[in-house]
Each structure stands twice: as structure tokens, then as C-alpha cells.
Queue: 2 jobs
Job 1
Amino acid sequence: MKNLVVVGGGYGGMRILARFLPSQLPEDVTITLIDRNPYHCLKTEYYALAAGTISDQHVRVAFPEHPRLKITYGDVTGFDLEKKKVLMKDAEAINYDDLIIGLGCEDNYHGVPGAQENTYSIQSIEKSRETYQTLNNLAPGSIVSIVGAGLSGVELASELNESRPDLRIKLFDRGNHILSAFPVRLSTYVENWFDSHGVEIVSNSNITKVEPNTLYNHEESIYSDVIVWTAGIQPSKIVREMDVEKDRQGRVVLTPHHNIPGNEHVYVIGDCASLPHAPSAQLAEGQAEQVVQILLKRWNNEELPESLPTIKLKGILGSLGKKHGFGMVAERPLTGRVARLLKSGILWMYKYHNG
Ligand SMILES: Cc1cc2nc3c(=O)[nH]c(=O)nc-3n(C[C@H](O)[C@H](O)[C@H](O)COP(=O)(O)OP(=O)(O)OC[C@H]3O[C@@H](n4cnc5c(N)ncnc54)[C@H](O)[C@@H]3O)c2cc1C
């Protein structure tokens, strides 16, 4: 029996399982899934968990069950690529024949002194729970500073505004406009929404230092009861520490078949992989689909195509509380209630298809 080890049951890992199980997994292959959590976590909803508008159970999806799927819960600490082992914290290493690494990402503090120590995060479920508790225990009128107005910062600021309209929320962003990855028209729509809801946007900011309850924008010190960091991501530390080639963001450089160059038994997916698009759940899933096809061909000794088709992305949707949204769908900007309904519908479908 060959053992395919999938490290990380996030969006990429779950898509691998969904495509192999129940019926596409060759008879002589077993899968071992390793994750520190006993369920798949819906990371795209962490902003709502932190804001307190959904329950913890709402962001959990059970891992699938199958006679040839073994699930090991624990913390991965590294890889021995020569001996083909996954190294575990306080447990025996796990042997693999083929390995798929999908450990996701963590915050990138860009070297800002004190940022890691003095800010809250929504990059993991554990950290989102801490953020939820702290935000929701705040006294009325407290100041919450959110650093970074990309998708996750905007979603958190708007959801928190809806959950706790008594708080004073400040949203700091480097650019002239928030949501720099989106067309200006969408940024303006979202800025107007914040304006009408009393959320302060601090544009052209440069956070130079963070101390307990204080952040420094350029030279100016700003008191905040809570500071949340949503200003950038980087791949999991375990992946950053791997002795393989990486791009400027620390993501692993891969062959066109998604394996590490010179090692056709190790694949890297999702936020850890160097791909020609910004990291997203959709991208992790699209890449996972391709890895499944490659593995099936390799196991069957079939010839591989020289290159694979470009991974198609359908667009991206963001929420502004529970009633409004924004996004790009089929390369067209979409705003308002329709965008929000579409986002809720996609989440519903995801949960439905993943049991
Ligand atoms: C607030 C927010 C909103 C977002 N909204 C969107 C959106 O609308 N659309 C979109 O496409 N993307 C969105 N994203 C991005 C998306 O969540 C990620 O790109 C996606 O989760 C990447 O999938 P992945 O499989 O690479 O990793 P993940 O889904 O992060 O999964 C990683 C898995 O690895 C496990 N793990 C990590 N380290 C270890 C370890 N050491 N040992 C054992 N297990 C470990 C984790 O428990 C987890 O199960 C959003 C992200 C955030 C934070």
C-alpha cells in the first residue's frame, strides 16, 4: 500500500480529499490527513467569528470518513524529505510515499517593532477566538484599531461595527484608497459605507511601531484599547524554514506539475505555494484539483502534459456586515445586497458539498 500524506485539512487539503474520496482513490493507496484541529475550519469566516456575529460551530466542517482515510491530529514541526517523513511535535514521525503540504499562512508583521506582541489576529481559529473574546469584552466607547484594509480588515471592521456599534473603529491603510487590489469604484463604495456607519478610515498611514495599547502612525501615537493586525500574510513558518527554493513572499517555487523541483513526491498547495495569483481559498482548491490529476497519472505511469491549464478563478466577494457586500464577479464589479446574497449562497453551497 502507498501512503499519500496530506498535511493540513484547509481549503486545499479538503479539495484533495473530496476528489479522491469516495471512489477515485486507487485500491493500493491510503491517505493520511494530518491537522492540529479536529475539523476543517472555514477561515474565510474568521472575521465574523472574531466580531461575534457567528458561533464557533458555524466555522467548523467535519472531515470526511472513509475506510482508507486515516486522520492524525497533532502539530507538524517539519519534514525530512530525504527519509520521506513528516515530523510531529511529541509524536512519532509519519512516513509518506507522496506528500501534499497545505499548511496555510500566518500574519506578516513586515518587521514592525512590537506588532507581533501587541496586536490581535484573525489568521488562525485559536487566534480568532482570542480576538473574539477581547473585542466582545470591551467597554462601550472603546477604541479598536484595525491595521490593514484589504479584504479581511474591511470585513472585520464592518462586521464589528454591526456587532458592536458602540465601539470606535479606526481602519488604517497604506494607500490613498482602501482595498488596493480592487477597482477604485469598489473602494469608493466601501469607503462611503464606512463613512455612513461611523468607521474612521486613516489613509496613507505607515505603522512604524506598536506598543501595548498604542500604535504609531508615522510619528503620531494613537491610543487603542485593542489593535488587530490584518496587514499582510506569509506562508506557515514550517514551510518558510524548508530548505527549498522560495519566492519573495517565502512561498515554495514549484514545477508546472506543482511538485518541488527534483522531487516528484512532494507537492505544495494553497497559501504556501508560489502561484501566479494572490493566495485565496479558490486558488488552493483549483490547484488541489490539478494535483489530484497529476497524482492519478503518475500512479498509473501515464505521461504528464508539459503544462497545465491556468487555474480559473471566478472572482472574489467581500461582506460589509450581513446585508451589504462588494466584489468582482466575472471581472465585473458588484456591490450591495446582491453581492452579499451571493457570498452567503457560496458559503452555503460549500458547507452543503462538504457534508
Ligand atoms: C478573514 C479572511 C477572509 C478571507 N476571505 C476569502 C474569500 O472570501 N475568498 C477566498 O478565496 N479566500 C479568502 N481568504 C483566504 C483563504 O482563507 C486562504 O487563502 C485559504 O484558507 C488557503 O487555503 P489553504 O488550504 O492553503 O490553507 P488553510 O485553509 O489555512 O488550511 C491550513 C490547514 O493547516 C492546518 N495547520 C497549520 N499549521 C499546522 C501545523 N503546524 N500542524 C498541523 N496542522 C496545521 C490548519 O489547522 C488548517 O487546517 C480569507 C482569509 C481570511 C483570513
Note: The mean pLDDT is 96.
Job 2
Amino acid sequence: MAKVESFTLDHTKVKAPYVRLITEETGKKGDVISNYDLRLVQPNTNAIPTGGLHTIEHLLAGLLRDRLDGVIDCSPFGCRTGFHLITWGEHSTTEVAKALKSSLEAIANDIEWKDVQGTDKYSCGNYRDHSLFSAKEWSKEILSQGISDKPFERHVI
Ligand SMILES: [Zn+2]
């Protein structure tokens, strides 16, 4: 089976919350795609409950696109400790961390339920499992710890 970089990361050595570049890949026509690890909580210590994680997912989909060029997708890890962010082109982890921080600040302070996209049975695969309350509380918790642009040392932006 193909060896996957994410599973070679020593999850006991990282210091969340952080942004980490996983890979930059160049396609046959020269286009570059970047994949980032947006680690919001410490692996094997914490995990964001599904309702809050799901609402953060729906919100980051719009908020990150407003703050960063070339966003393709931002999807939660199955372990519920963070998200993959995939973008066209190259961005520094500092730039991504700033966009993430600003997005979480918006969730914590500005977003109301009417602002959350995709919360009915037509636009979401599990619309009953959302919690804006949880999304806000976890965003505040993550922001209180600060977001590092390095995974193994705390270098808070
Ligand atoms: Zn959904």
C-alpha cells in the first residue's frame, strides 16, 4: 500500500494548535497544489466533538476562501483534531495560520446561526449534527492557546 506522509508524523512530538505544510505537489502541467495540516487540538489528548467540528467545517469553507487565495478544500481529520487544507499554489504556514486565526476569531465573535451555510437536509449529509455553540467555544479555546506556524515548537503568530 502507498506510504502516506501523515502517518509518518510522530503525533506525540507536535505542539498544537499549529499549521504544518504536509506536501507541495506539482502536476504534469506545472500547477502546484499544497496540502496543510491545520491541527487545532493536541493529538491523543483532545478531540473536537462532531457537532462543533461539523459546524467549524461548514464555516471554514467560506471564511478561509475569503482570506486565502486558491482554497480547494478544507476537510476534517477522522481523529477530530483538525483539518486538511488543500490549495492551489504555495502559501507560507504563517500566511495560512493568519487566515485560520482570523477565521476562528470570526466564528468566536461574529458568526450567528443564520450565517452558517448548508444546515438543512438539502445541503448537508447530516444536518442534525451541528453545534454553533460548540464551534464558538472550541474556537475560543484554540485562540486562547494561540496558533503556531511551526508544528514542533510554539511559534505563535
Ligand atoms: Zn455537513
Note: The first helix runs from residue 50 to 67.
